[in-house]
Give the backbone structure.
Amino acid sequence: MTGTPPANAAIIFDKLGKSFAKAGSGQVMALQDVSLTVPTGSITGIIGRSGAGKSTLLRMVNGLERPTEGHVQVVGRDVGAARGSDLRAIRRDVGMIFQHFNLLASRTVWGNIALPLEIAGTPSGQIKARVDQLIDQVGLTAHRDRYPAEMSGGQKQRVGIARALATSPKVLLSDEATSALDPETTQTVLELLSQINRDLGLTILLITHEMAVLRDIASHMAVIEGGRIVESGPTYDVFAKPTHATTRSFLSGVTGATLPAFVAARMTTNRPDGPAQEVIRVTFAGQHATDPMLAMLATELGIAANILAGAIEEVGPHPFGNLLLSIDAPRAAEARAYLEQHGLTTEVLGYVR
C-alpha cells in the first residue's frame, strides 16, 4: 500500500475493487475504487441497499474475500497479501457477529462461546476463565447451560457477540446483526455493542440497511451504492448535511422527513402561476438545533410556516432534526435566507398550488 496510513486507523480500504465471474457476462464489479478509513476505537457503519456491495466489503476485512484491485489493511497488516499463519493471526484479531447467529445447535451457550478458543488451542483453564467472564459480560449467566433452541433471538445474538469477543479481537465486524430482531431487542443489542466499544475501546465495523441503527450507535458512517462509497464522514455531519440522493433517501425514513401522500401527489417541481406554497426541508443541527426558529420567523419577519412533517431527535449526543414546511411562495426565499443565517440548512422540494 502506498503512502503513510493514518496513525489512528484500525482499518483502511485503499482504492479497493472486487470482481466476480458471472456466467455469460464476463466479470461483474461488486466493488469499485473504495477508499475509506475506519478510525481506531470508533463504531463505523456502512449502509446500503441489497446488492450494493456492503457484505462483500465486510468480508474483505477478515480475508473471506480477496481484492481484485487495491488493498485492505487491518491494524497495519495487508489482509489480501496474507497467507497461512499470517492470515490466521489477522483473523484472531477480527471477531464476527452474524445476522442469523450461526450457533452450533449441539452446543450450549458455554460451548458455543468456547469454540474459537478451543480451535486456537487455548489451555482449558484459560478457556474456562475467559468464557465465564464473557457470559457475565453479555448478561447470560443464568443461561450458560441452555442450547440455542431454548433461547430467544436476542439471547442468541448475545451468545454470538460473546463468541466474537472470545479471542480478544482488536476489530469486531457486525453483519446485519440486528436485522432479524424486533425493535426492542435491537435496542438492547445496540446498547450492548456501545458498552463493549466504550469499555474495551474496541473498533466496531457494522453493515446495515437501517439508518436508525447508525443514528443510535455509529460515530462514523459511509453510504455505499453500486459498489462505490458515495458519502462518508462523522455520522452527525452526514445526517446534518447529506450530499447524495441515496443518503437523503435513507434519512427520510428516520427523521420524520417524509411528505404526506396528499401533499406529494399535488407537488410540482416548477412554481405554478397564481397563489402557491413552496415546500422546503429544513435541517436543524448545531447550536441552533433546539431554538424556536419558526416562532422567531413569525415574530421577526411575520412569515408563517405550515409544518407538514418532522421530528427533533438526537444523533449521538447532538440534537438533530428535519422539518418539512410549506411557506407562501412570494416570501419563501426570504424565509430560507433567515433560517440559513441562523445556521440551519434548507432545501426546496417543490411547489403546491
Remarks:
- The first strand starts at residue 9 and ends at 22.
- The chain has a mean pLDDT of 89.
